[in-house]
Write a structure and sequence with these properties.
alpha+beta, Alpha-D-Glucose-1,6-Bisphosphate, Chain A, domain 4, seven-stranded antiparallel beta sheet, 7 strands, globular
Protein backbone atom coordinates (compact mmCIF):
# COMPACT_ATOMS: atom_id res chain seq x y z
CA UNK A 1 0.00 0.00 0.00
CA UNK A 2 1.22 3.47 -0.80
CA UNK A 3 0.43 6.59 1.21
CA UNK A 4 1.27 10.15 0.31
CA UNK A 5 0.29 13.43 1.81
CA UNK A 6 1.24 16.69 3.35
CA UNK A 7 0.42 18.21 6.73
CA UNK A 8 0.78 21.85 7.68
CA UNK A 9 2.74 22.40 10.89
CA UNK A 10 2.43 25.78 12.67
CA UNK A 11 6.13 26.10 13.55
CA UNK A 12 9.29 27.13 11.71
CA UNK A 13 10.69 24.73 9.13
CA UNK A 14 13.93 24.65 11.16
CA UNK A 15 12.07 23.44 14.30
CA UNK A 16 10.32 20.74 12.28
CA UNK A 17 13.56 19.66 10.60
CA UNK A 18 15.37 19.39 13.94
CA UNK A 19 12.54 17.20 15.22
CA UNK A 20 12.32 14.76 12.32
CA UNK A 21 16.07 14.10 12.20
CA UNK A 22 15.98 12.81 15.78
CA UNK A 23 15.06 9.11 15.56
CA UNK A 24 14.03 8.89 19.22
CA UNK A 25 11.63 11.80 18.85
CA UNK A 26 10.06 10.36 15.68
CA UNK A 27 9.84 6.86 17.20
CA UNK A 28 8.13 8.31 20.29
CA UNK A 29 5.19 9.17 18.03
CA UNK A 30 4.62 5.58 16.94
CA UNK A 31 1.18 4.37 18.08
CA UNK A 32 0.88 2.76 21.49
CA UNK A 33 4.60 3.23 22.17
CA UNK A 34 5.85 1.45 25.33
CA UNK A 35 9.63 1.64 24.95
CA UNK A 36 12.43 2.82 22.66
CA UNK A 37 16.05 1.66 22.81
CA UNK A 38 19.04 2.28 20.58
CA UNK A 39 20.94 -0.73 19.23
CA UNK A 40 23.75 0.21 16.88
CA UNK A 41 22.32 2.41 14.13
CA UNK A 42 18.75 1.22 14.72
CA UNK A 43 16.08 2.00 17.26
CA UNK A 44 14.00 -0.81 18.71
CA UNK A 45 10.41 0.07 19.51
CA UNK A 46 7.82 -1.93 21.47
CA UNK A 47 4.19 -0.89 21.50
CA UNK A 48 0.60 -2.00 21.28
CA UNK A 49 -1.71 -1.64 18.31
CA UNK A 50 -5.06 -2.79 17.07
CA UNK A 51 -6.73 -3.08 13.71
CA UNK A 52 -10.36 -4.03 13.92
CA UNK A 53 -10.73 -6.97 16.28
CA UNK A 54 -6.99 -7.84 16.13
CA UNK A 55 -5.08 -6.24 18.99
CA UNK A 56 -1.75 -6.91 20.64
CA UNK A 57 1.89 -6.01 21.06
CA UNK A 58 4.31 -5.23 18.25
CA UNK A 59 8.07 -4.87 18.02
CA UNK A 60 9.72 -2.75 15.37
CA UNK A 61 13.14 -1.55 14.33
CA UNK A 62 13.54 1.91 12.82
CA UNK A 63 16.58 2.98 10.84
CA UNK A 64 17.30 6.26 9.09
CA UNK A 65 18.70 5.41 5.67
CA UNK A 66 19.54 8.94 4.55
CA UNK A 67 19.38 12.44 5.99
CA UNK A 68 19.79 15.22 3.40
CA UNK A 69 19.95 18.64 5.14
CA UNK A 70 20.22 20.54 1.84
CA UNK A 71 16.83 19.18 0.70
CA UNK A 72 15.46 18.75 4.24
CA UNK A 73 14.62 15.15 3.41
CA UNK A 74 14.82 12.02 5.55
CA UNK A 75 14.47 8.44 4.30
CA UNK A 76 13.70 5.73 6.80
CA UNK A 77 13.01 2.05 7.04
CA UNK A 78 10.85 0.40 9.69
CA UNK A 79 10.30 -3.33 10.08
CA UNK A 80 7.95 -4.75 12.63
CA UNK A 81 6.15 -7.83 13.74
CA UNK A 82 3.36 -8.71 16.09
CA UNK A 83 -0.28 -9.70 15.96
CA UNK A 84 0.92 -12.73 13.91
CA UNK A 85 1.91 -10.34 11.14
CA UNK A 86 4.89 -8.55 9.63
CA UNK A 87 5.07 -4.95 8.43
CA UNK A 88 7.78 -3.35 6.29
CA UNK A 89 7.66 0.39 5.77
CA UNK A 90 9.90 2.64 3.72
CA UNK A 91 9.18 6.33 3.96
CA UNK A 92 10.48 9.69 2.82
CA UNK A 93 9.76 12.81 4.88
CA UNK A 94 10.43 16.28 3.48
CA UNK A 95 10.10 19.61 5.25
CA UNK A 96 8.61 22.30 3.00
CA UNK A 97 8.42 26.04 3.68
CA UNK A 98 5.95 28.93 3.38
CA UNK A 99 3.89 27.69 5.16
CA UNK A 100 5.80 24.95 6.99
CA UNK A 101 4.59 21.54 5.87
CA UNK A 102 5.68 17.96 6.28
CA UNK A 103 5.36 16.01 3.05
CA UNK A 104 5.40 12.25 3.32
CA UNK A 105 5.37 9.25 1.08
CA UNK A 106 5.33 5.72 2.46
CA UNK A 107 5.24 2.25 1.02
CA UNK A 108 3.83 -0.30 3.46
CA UNK A 109 3.94 -4.06 2.99
CA UNK A 110 1.88 -6.20 5.36
CA UNK A 111 1.76 -9.98 5.60
CA UNK A 112 0.12 -12.42 7.98
CA UNK A 113 -3.14 -12.20 9.92
CA UNK A 114 -3.43 -8.42 9.60
CA UNK A 115 -3.14 -8.66 5.81
CA UNK A 116 -6.04 -11.11 5.71
CA UNK A 117 -8.61 -8.71 7.18
CA UNK A 118 -9.17 -6.84 3.96
CA UNK A 119 -7.75 -3.84 2.15
CA UNK A 120 -10.56 -1.42 3.07
CA UNK A 121 -10.13 -2.00 6.78
CA UNK A 122 -6.34 -1.89 6.46
CA UNK A 123 -6.46 1.30 4.43
CA UNK A 124 -8.60 3.14 6.98
CA UNK A 125 -6.55 1.77 9.92
CA UNK A 126 -3.27 2.78 8.25
CA UNK A 127 -4.68 6.24 7.50
CA UNK A 128 -5.64 6.63 11.17
CA UNK A 129 -2.19 5.50 12.31
CA UNK A 130 -0.52 7.95 9.91
CA UNK A 131 -2.81 10.79 11.02
CA UNK A 132 -2.06 10.02 14.68
CA UNK A 133 1.67 9.87 13.91
CA UNK A 134 1.72 13.23 12.16
CA UNK A 135 -0.56 14.86 14.74
CA UNK A 136 1.92 13.73 17.38
CA UNK A 137 4.86 15.13 15.37
CA UNK A 138 3.01 18.44 14.92
CA UNK A 139 2.30 18.68 18.63
CA UNK A 140 5.67 17.56 19.95
CA UNK A 141 7.79 19.44 17.38
CA UNK A 142 6.06 22.66 18.43
CA UNK A 143 7.05 22.15 22.07
CA UNK A 144 10.75 21.44 21.55
Amino acid sequence: MKFEGEVQVPISSEQLWNYIIDPEKVASCFPGIKSISKEGDEYKVIGTAGIGFIKGEYKASVKFLQIDPSRKTVSLLAKGNGLNSNVDLTAVLTVLENPTRLKYSADVKISGVVASIGIRLLDSAASKILNDLFDCIKTKAGTT
